Amino acid sequence: MRRFGVAFAAAVISALVLSGCFTVGRNFVSTPVKRIEKGVTTKADVKKEFGEPFRTGLDDGYESWTYVYNRWTPFTQTRSKDLYIVFNKDGTVRSYTFNSNLD
Question: Which fold is adopted by the domain 22-100?
Fold first, then answer.
């Protein structure tokens, strides 16, 4: 009886691992990326379109925001996209980079 319980638990754990997925970040609509304009688009504009950033930081003394979405599953290609934005001191976009294998 005990062997059956151990075998059953191992089968359940294996099924969960094989069918499971892992996600980091929050999926975001990437269409507004095309509307970002250097020196024009503000932090408020970015927040309105993409929500709260996944992380914030500094890039050579300028504030930066990162939006990330990564989803791994055992049987499909990794789905990912990231948007990295650096802001000028006046709160407008200084530069940005967008990468994705989804759109």
Answer: Beta-lactamase Inhibitory Protein; Chain:B, domain 1 (3.30.1450)
